[in-house]
Amino acid sequence: MIRISTRIAKESGRTVRPATQSDVAREAGVSQALASCVLAGKPVRVSPETEQRIHKAADRLGYRPNLIARGLRGAPTGLLGAIVRDLSAPVANEICRHLLHKAPAHGFDVLLTDAADDPRTLLRLAALMKSRLCDGVFLVGELPGQDAIWDDYLDIGLPTILLLHSGEGLFPSIATDEEVAVRAMAEHLVGLGHRRIGFVVANWMHGVHARFQAFRRALAGFGVIVEDRHVVMAPPTREGGANALSQLVAAGDLPTAVVATTDLLALGVLAEAHRQAIPVPQSLSVVGFDDIPGAADFPPGLTTMHQPVEAIAEAALSFFDRVEDPGSRLALLEAPLIVRGSTGPPRLADLPNIDMARFIGEAPHE
């Protein structure tokens, strides 16, 4: 008997039904029950040779799982959704790229959508993914006003993992250990001799505000107090960073270092420093957070904390199988300090009249 694959049948102009698990079982010379278990990825006692024979038979016949039937039975479909706050956001974009590339190795496919910074769009997309039988969803990045819609989101009943924000502990999340990261950055700046340190903070991101508070605590541990007049809230864009530095300059009391809570803000600060002929790092050190593409290339190279986007994506896919585990609420990853040309010692004329030596090299006070 000659078997005709789905692909060949289509090329010959014939209409054939899709290949089924029964077809794969006959092709591989095994029982339908065994073929079903292997194709569904269920644990089963089978030799590697037999498992390979079943998968090759499925490939020859063009077999594809019936996701609708699997979803109606309550079985996993292997589909995961990813709703990103804004695909133009560099870190979120990079994480989604790694999710898409790595998902097949974990037995998943990922449907990627963009909420365009709109919480109501997030709700609509989540409901759509539930109706399309996604096993769960990644929420990538924090949206403005998102706290107001959590109750409605919970009503959708979709297993969720958060990336790049905490979600008030409502869902499992994967993030960087920012307390450790910002302490390393604070130690770097204080070790260089900086005492008058300013901040440019993204104005609506709760997670970034928490990052800023962690910086303040870390600097206080070194005896450095951040003055409110040196803190500027700004939209999380390069333009926001540039305008923030203009405000600090106009105030007539420019800090010796500026910490931007995201790299986009930091690149705006660097661009405005160049426009105003402020030497970096000689008269102003600038640091960011994220290590986005281009951070190393923007003159003189941005000192920043590296968001491990590939590791976040890998952990997210591995973590998904444990989404129901109440003990797995938060995974913390290391964000190493990347020192480049945008930081250096301040000029002596720019330093306040304090005893610098007692701080340099000290460990933070507990």
Can you walk through the features of this model?
α2 (21-28) packs across α3 and α9 (178-192) packs across α10. β3, α8 and β4 (160-163) form a beta-alpha-beta unit. The protein has 3 domains: 6-64, 434 Repressor (Amino-terminal Domain); 79-176 and 311-333, Rossmann fold; 179-305 and 337-358, Response regulator (Rossmann fold). The longest helix has 16 residues, at 206-221. It has helices spanning 6-11, 21-28, 32-40, 48-61, 67-72, 90-102, 119-131, 150-156, 178-192, 206-221, 238-250, 263-275, 309-319; strands spanning 79-84, 109-114, 136-140, 160-163, 173-176, 197-202, 231-234, 257-260, 285-287, 304-305, 330-333, 337-338. With 366 residues, the protein is an alpha/beta fold. The strands form 3 sheets. Strands 2-1-3-4-5-11 form a 6-stranded parallel beta sheet, with helices on both faces. Strands 7-6-8-9 form a 4-stranded parallel beta sheet, with helices on both faces. Strands 10-12 form a two-stranded antiparallel ribbon. The model is unreliable at 1-15, 67-74 and 353-366 (pLDDT under 50).
